[in-house]
């Protein structure tokens, strides 16, 4: 059993652009397109915006990708940002956090670790910093975690025997599932989980801004700040106006230069 204090994010999928198909489209319409970005996410957003008005070839007024996307973001034209998508594998977060994160259904997709099938006998846990900072409170928290985890392991063992006796015809996988799905009821919200999280740029901007605000729960705010840093590196023309700021309590938060996107 480990106590984890920081989430980890792995970028396992990102937007790409099929240049051959883009060139075929341009040739079919006897036009051209010049841009300077090499990031698929930024290219697809610019292309989407230009197709809306066919501002290509001689009608291509803004030459740089940054200028073009900056104008879109500045005017609040957020719909074209929905074409840029990332797949993020997130670990080191608690069930408390994912209960909040999965509320953001628009423009997102979630595949989360199943406690019905996955053995949590070696589970890790997320400790809130406000508890970790106080030795006495940490001791109370740790006792509770250890007791819950011990109860889970004991329940799994007892339930496995019971299921074997009552349902000998079931497969081993089914017996384990029946035991774990009942035993997980004693696991706390602090239990670490993993999920594959897919989202488009518009959804990510909203999640980062909302969950990075001062009123957000501290754990999900830490994730939002980490997402902010990551996405500014991934696509600076799409996320460059998001700023990491110091909040009144001394922690980091996120502020958007353009909120209506």
Features:
two-stranded parallel ribbon; Alpha-Beta Plaits; 47% helix; 10 helices; 8 strands; alpha+beta; 3 domains; 261 residues; 4-stranded antiparallel sheet
CATH topology type of the largest domain = Alpha-Beta Plaits
- pLDDT under 50 segments (min length 5)? none
Q: Strand arrangement, largest sheet?
A: 2-3-6-4
SSE-based structural type: alpha+beta
The SSE order reads: EEHHHEHEEHHHEHHHEE
What's the CATH architecture of the largest domain?
A: 2-Layer Sandwich
Helix content: 40-55%
Number of strands: 8
The fraction of residues in strands falls at 15-25%
Largest sheet, if any?
A: 4 strands, antiparallel
Q: What is the C-alpha radius of gyration, as a whole number of Å? A: 24 Å
Notes on the protein architecture:
The chain has 3 domains: 15-82, no CATH class; 86-113 and 192-256, Alpha-Beta Plaits (2-Layer Sandwich), CATH 3.30.70.3180; 129-186. The model has no long low-confidence stretch (mean pLDDT 95). The longest helix is centred in the middle third of the chain and has 32 residues, at 135-166. The chain is 47% helix and 17% strand. The radius of gyration is 24 Å and the shape is elongated. The strands form 3 sheets. It has a 4-stranded antiparallel sheet with strand order 2-3-6-4. It has a two-stranded parallel ribbon with strand order 1-5. Strands 7-8 form a two-stranded antiparallel ribbon. The chain is built from 10 helices and 8 strands. It has 261 residues and is α+β, with helices and mostly antiparallel strands. The protein has helices spanning 19-28, 40-53, 65-75, 95-101, 129-132, 135-166, 172-183, 201-211, 218-234, 236-239, and strands spanning 3-4, 8-14, 85-94, 108-112, 125-126, 192-200, 242-246, 252-256.
């Amino acid at each position: 059993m480990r106590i984890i204090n920081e989430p980890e994010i792995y970028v396992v999928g990102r937007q790409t652009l099929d240049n051959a198909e883009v060139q075929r489209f341009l040739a079919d319409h006897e036009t051209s397109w010049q841009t300077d970005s090499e990031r698929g996410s930024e290219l697809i957003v610019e292309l989407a915006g230009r197709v809306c008005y066919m501002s290509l070839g001689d009608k291509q007024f803004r030459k740089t990708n940054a200028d073009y996307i900056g104008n879109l973001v500045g005017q609040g034209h957020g719909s074209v940002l929905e074409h840029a998508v990332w797949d993020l594998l997130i670990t080191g977060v608690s069930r408390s956090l994912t209960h909040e994160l999965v509320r953001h259904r628009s423009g997102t997709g979630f595949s989360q670790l199943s406690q019905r099938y996955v053995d949590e006998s070696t589970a890790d846990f997320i400790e809130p910093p406000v508890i970790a900072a106080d030795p006495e409170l940490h001791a109370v928290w740790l006792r509770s975690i250890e007791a819950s985890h011990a109860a889970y392991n004991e329940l799994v063992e007892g339930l496995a025997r019971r299921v074997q006796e009552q349902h000998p015809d079931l497969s081993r996988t089914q017996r384990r599932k029946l035991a774990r799905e009942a035993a997980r009821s004693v696991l706390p919200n602090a239990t670490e989980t993993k999920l594959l999280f897919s989202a488009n740029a518009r959804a990510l901007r909203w999640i980062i801004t909302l969950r990075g605000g001062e009123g957000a729960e501290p754990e999900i705010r830490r994730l939002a700040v980490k997402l902010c840093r990551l996405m500014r590196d991934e696509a600076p023309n799409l996320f460059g106006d998001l700023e990491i700021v110091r909040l009144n309590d001394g922690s980091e938060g996120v502020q958007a230069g353009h909120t209506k996107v």
